[in-house]
Amino acid sequence: MHKLAAVLLASALPFAAFAAGSDDTTPPTPTETTTTCTDGQIYDAEAQKCKNPQDASLGDDIRFGAVRELAYAGRYTEARAALDAMSEGESDRVLTYLGFITRKSGDMAGGMAYYARALEVNPDNILARSYMGQALVEQGDIAAAARQLDEIRIRGGAGSWAEASLAHAVGTGQTLNY
């Protein structure tokens, strides 16, 4: 069993830096959003200035990039403000991010509710399943987390960060900080 845990840990470590909702294997590079902009503003590279998240010239993909960067920096309130400005409403992508930010802000039950809603919208959302599974590990429910890991694999998530990070958590009983 220790060998399996070591294999799971070794396979998960390259993925440890993944951020909420990202397919990138490295932490987000800090941009002006976190180094220059203040009060939750988002840097618009095209306009070369900071803008409020609600600015109509910012698309949802720019907002999601900012959410990822802000969340990685632990600036959950600002990340939430960017999510609230999204034009796509309560998509499973938005609900997953809301779950992550809510859970990392200390509201486990609220985060779990957002993950459940994301899965109602899209049962194949492997990121929501991974974050939910990690929350279950944090609550000590390894069996329920393992069921989410199985669902990730069944739904085509084998080899993804979502699978690797949850496999690490299930195998070690410890979640990655991010």
Polypeptide structure, described:
It is a single chain. The chain is mainly alpha-helical and 178 residues long. It has a domain at 91-178: Alpha Horseshoe (Serine Threonine Protein Phosphatase 5, Tetratricopeptide repeat). Helices cover 57% and strands 3% of the residues. The chain is built from nine helices and two strands. It has a two-stranded antiparallel ribbon with strand order 1-2. β1 (42-44) and β2 form a beta hairpin. α8 packs antiparallel against α9 (161-172). The two termini are 25 Å apart.
Radius of gyration of CA atoms, rounded to a whole number: 16 Å
Based on secondary structure, the structural category is mainly alpha
CATH H-tier superfamily of the domain at 91-178: Tetratricopeptide repeat domain
The overall average pLDDT, rounded, is 86
Unreliable stretches: 1-26
Largest sheet data: 2 strands, antiparallel
The number of helical runs is 9
The total count of strands amounts to 2
Looking at the overall shape, the CATH architecture of the domain at 91-178 is Alpha Horseshoe
Q: Which CATH class of the domain at 91-178? A: Mainly Alpha
Order of helices and strands: HHEEHHHHHHH
Please state the overall shape, judged from the principal axes of the Cα atoms.
elongated
The amount of helix comes to 55-70%
**CATH topology value of the domain at 91-178:** Serine Threonine Protein Phosphatase 5, Tetratricopeptide repeat
